[in-house]
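Hi L.,

You mentioned the student needs an example of a multi-chain input paired with its predicted structure. This one should do, with 1218 residues in total across all chains.
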Amino acid sequence: MLLSALKRFLIGQPLKSAELGEQKLNKTKALAILSSDALSSVAYGPEQILIVLVTISTVALWYSIPIGVGVLVLLLALILSYRQIIFAYPHGGGAYVVSKENLGVNAGLLAGGSLLVDYILTVAVSISAGTDAITSAFPQLHPYNVDIATLLVVAITILNLRGITESASILAYPVYLFILALFILIGAGLYKGMTGAVSPDMHPSLGTPVAGITLFLLLKAFASGSSALTGVEAISNAIPNFKDPGPNNASKTLAAMGLLLAILFSGIVYLAYAYGIAPKAQETVVSQIASQTFGRNYMYYFIQGTTAMILVLAANTGYSAFPLLAVNLARDKYIARMFTIRGDRLGYSNGIIFLSIMSIILIIAFKGRTEHLIPLYAVGVFIPFTLAQTGMLVKWVREKPKGWLVKLTINLIGALISFTVMLIFFITKLGQVWPVFIFLPLIVYTFHRIKRHYEAVGEQLRITTCEPAVPIEGNVMIVPVAGITHVVENSLNYAKSLSPDQIIAVYVAFDRDTEKQFQEKWADWQPDVRLVTLHSHYRSIIQPLTKFIDTVEHKAKESNFRVTVVIPQFIPKKSWQHALHNQSSLLIRAFLLYRKDLIVTTVPYHLKK
Amino acid sequence: MLLSALKRFLIGQPLKSAELGEQKLNKTKALAILSSDALSSVAYGPEQILIVLVTISTVALWYSIPIGVGVLVLLLALILSYRQIIFAYPHGGGAYVVSKENLGVNAGLLAGGSLLVDYILTVAVSISAGTDAITSAFPQLHPYNVDIATLLVVAITILNLRGITESASILAYPVYLFILALFILIGAGLYKGMTGAVSPDMHPSLGTPVAGITLFLLLKAFASGSSALTGVEAISNAIPNFKDPGPNNASKTLAAMGLLLAILFSGIVYLAYAYGIAPKAQETVVSQIASQTFGRNYMYYFIQGTTAMILVLAANTGYSAFPLLAVNLARDKYIARMFTIRGDRLGYSNGIIFLSIMSIILIIAFKGRTEHLIPLYAVGVFIPFTLAQTGMLVKWVREKPKGWLVKLTINLIGALISFTVMLIFFITKLGQVWPVFIFLPLIVYTFHRIKRHYEAVGEQLRITTCEPAVPIEGNVMIVPVAGITHVVENSLNYAKSLSPDQIIAVYVAFDRDTEKQFQEKWADWQPDVRLVTLHSHYRSIIQPLTKFIDTVEHKAKESNFRVTVVIPQFIPKKSWQHALHNQSSLLIRAFLLYRKDLIVTTVPYHLKK
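Structure written out for the whole complex:
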């Protein structure tokens, strides 16, 4: 009762299935909830480029401008091609569905598997990053990093269990505040530049020759910068969460997200270049830009605060996309069916809870230091990116719809760039990225195992298979008894009322005296019920009992009799009292049910005090 | 299978009940196993006295001699009076039984409760102390203190689960090595003193006047020194573990333990005085004595090593005494009956496991720093000491056996000193000792609650109560069905074979279409079985189902029909596959059994692949 009241308080009253429509998102809320991952990467994406370039010299930092342009091209290609995916697959599922339908099952499972893992990594990485931002501001909280991160995951989980519209309403403010904050920052920075407050001496001019620059290094910088594009695919997975017409609304939201991401990304890259900012271990690039633009005044703290918030909220994108992707995989029987069940508030609560548990495990296992999971996470995004674009390519070639050459070109460019980025990741960061070669095959293998199991079950249960049921010619009932009590009486009366062909009471004795005594008492009390006494040398009840039941069952099978074990169980009034009684009946029940082909009947006797 | 093989490997093959006699202890082993707690206190008891005295001045250290004599008197009184208890109560139970029989139930429960808690503290405190000794020798292990302590508890638990004779055989060596080590130390120290190698200038002469000494301080030093006597009562609890004749063997073992304890204690106290040793934070008194006697050679390390071992093994006394005390309390129905069950190797495994879990919890909760539990632990010993002696007093006055005046005098002295020590603890260390005022009443209250519950249950189950069983006039069977499958067919056939008065199949639908479809299919498939379809707005199966069952049950009760819920359950071949299926039948079963007065029958359908 207490637990259920607590659940109601945290999650809210259950919703009727018919209220599903009301739980759908309009574009403003969807943008907030589904793009927080992509937008938050602006806070670290540009920095990743600079970190690679600065290893040569600060002069090399001007390369961030052409590399930034490259990232924007990739962004454009991804947005356009995911727009095509949204219309082609209006029921969502994104990379998984696209790859499965066009490239075959294994490609689909590869895409689906990497995305599932990726959303878990999204949650763990972004919550850890957000926690770091918080504890950097309040260093006395630093020892509690893992606890704070775990609490944040729990809080986001509760919000998501309350339902997506409700969480969207709460989470939209910080996202839009972050966008506002960065717009102000970029606007103020550009204004400063135009009024001449930023001298050209602060940065190397574009095209300055740089000694020691290599293509490898530039590609590495480009790949690092592309990590700002993680999260772009989330909208295509989550179309079912949009208000009707889903695909239209989703594509408009995608366009808005692309535009915002492009503006914020180029703004930050440009300002970092203009101010000649080099990455520092103790201060983020965004923080440097903000303090150069405003000094450390309230605007600076506004920007830092909203950045910390968006990093935490990026996790929420995982919460929106993971359960829907899981539903798609579960409907195809590649993962457990429970992921298709809607919870009290119509969200797919099993997916939400699974995601939380996995990410909490990651946070605890890595003690909140999940930064070195980032390359793994980025490569896990570009695998499905590449597969999805290639899938679309194949689709256009196969179907050749009106204007297919344009569509083909878009997806071709997307596929080529995604593939290149993926390759660069594998080449330049193999040391951090190798685990995908182990866990992706493992995941795909598990998917197949699960599917095979579901299909075998379905086949065995289907009533059309011709194997006729074994007819039941009679019933034997075995009643294990522990004494001469009302509980036993109650069970015996029940067994008698069903008039089986035979009732056998079984008593397990630990020594000969008790055995004899019991037999005598029984003969007085229930002379018409056959009593079998068993002797236990090792003080175990289950062992002699199952041995006896085996014998009975063996005989019964010969004449098509069914064996039912009738277990007398008394049930105390209060639950703490259970601990005071041997749970032998529980053990017997579990043991018999799973190991043997027996019917187990529990006859409860409720105590009144 | 794997688990049970692991269990066999760790614990050994199960023993027959008839082999109980072979599991009993001879005196040598019993001394080792039951006196390790008392003997180990020699390693810290004398130090406790010096720590109090040195707060005045180093001159005051000579008072350790008269205080030591006082402790020896108390030891003598305790040994003599526990000897009397052993013969008066040859079945063991010690302070609990003595107090209960002579002073009333509550006194007994107070004694029993404090001893139970005390044995848990013994294990936690001595394992922590032993771990400290180990990690002092290997400082690089220091961060793993809690892990090492936990592992040690687990190791001792496994030894004890293997059976007491086996653990005694292994654990006897270190105990006797420790005794040997201290004998050599004391012998060498005395020899040095006699050969004049110890100058009288090293220590103040006895009787030197000391400024600022108070009675309060001396009493505090005495009480602290008395903590060396914890563990003296263990033998009286454990008489059933002795080879026949138990009481004789136990009393001889007790005498041997008393003698050893007296020699070791006085030796250490005297040498500490003779060398003029003051307690140091970084080095124990025994270590100081050893290094002054031998220098830091191999003998020094032999003494230090065996001391560390005996500290760990002191825990084992708790393992011998706790389960036997628990059996006594459980037989009287004050704690759960499970404590009376002998495990595979004839030890009371539930008591052993409970003790381990509780002490691991304490170790983890206090992060291995359990020193400040020592006063609590000491006071928890002197409460039952006092009660037991007072109980014996009352017994002698009441029964007046031959020579009762001598016996009375012994117990009177014991009771008075124990009571005084207890009072001193309360007065001088109230800040550390106050929790007993909360948890002891709580424990006694719980004991009574449990007893009342067992008595109520017994009364309700006893067949002699005149309430006649309600006759069963007929049976209704409800079969929840989830589809048209072999599993359902199997259950329906079973229900039919018992020919109840009515069979009702119940189907819970989430929307109207499925509901209608199912009704049609059912009418084709099982036209003779009545189908009831229920509609669930909130996607819950249990809620509408229980509501329906309630209605049926209500009607059935009017005409004395019994309601059986027949649950079809298919059982996958491998256990990992369970996770892939909704565990609704499990939930339904648990829910129905505990909340309602229904009979629950599970009909398994075992999948073949």
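You could point out the following to them. Chain A touches chain B through 72 residues (CB under 8 Å). The beta strands of chain A are 474-480, 502-509, 530-535, 561-571, 599-606.

Best wishes,
N.
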